[in-house]
Amino acid sequence: MDKQGILLILEGADCSGKTTLANNIISFFGKDNCDYMHSTYFTGMDVLSHHRQILTRAMHSLNNNDIVIIDRHWISECVYGSEYRKGCSYAPNELQYMKKIAEVNGQYILCIPNREVQLSRHKERKEKDGEMFSDISGVIDRYDALWNGKKLDNNPQNQVDLLTQAGGVSFRDNWHLYDWQEHGDILPEYINSIIRGIKYE
Fold first, then answer.
1. Which pTM does this prediction carry?
2. What is the phi/psi pair of residue 194, to 5°?
């Protein structure tokens, strides 16, 4: 692997396998070669400032690590904000993050497993440990629409809406689909293809 750092943005609904994927990447490439950061959310927080700090740290970390992983960022704010609140709390400022990530050839990985499996896992975790949201079916649908493209019934409100309405991101070179059931056993090949700038088929 080249010494130039690569930025990976992991996205997806709750229980889609993002954190497990991040842990597997770190385990495979070594903790000393990776930096992991997780964007969280709580009611009343300044999401714009939090995401700015996360991305600033990630950009700096690219100088010292082979792989820098952000678990959730601007896409989550667009998706969850649209589903549960009045929309992305800082639209249209998410465009600045999209541009900065593109400047360093950041790679997005959308974690989208089987819908029923994901809903079942979320239900189990909600009953066992508690979850912020009782129903994530709408969020799952939004991530699926982002990948596959969908004609929206309303006007686009943020960059996720725009990408969705423009045909989705499946054809974009720096966007990748990850299904832990399909790709879990071939993780090294999958991640190495992304690092080389090749979409895994």
1. 0.91
2. -65, -40
- In angstroms, the CA 36 to CA 26 distance is 8
Distance, CA of 77 to CA of 47 (rounded, Å):
8
Q: Which residues pair with 36 in a beta bridge?
A: 69
- Which residues are within 8 A (CB) of 64 and not within 5 positions of it... i.e. 6 or more apart? 5, 35
Q: Please, what sign has the CA dihedral across residues 143, 180, 32, 105? A: negative
pLDDT digits (tens, 9 = 90+) for 47-92: 999 999 999 999 999 999 899 999 999 999 999 999 998 889 999 9
27-31 contacts at long range (C-beta below 8 A, 24 or more positions apart):
28/187, 28/188, 28/191, 29/1, 29/66, 29/67, 29/191
Q: Are 25 and 107 in contact (CB under 8 A)?
A: no
Q: CA torsion 146→157→159→89, rounded to 10°?
A: -110
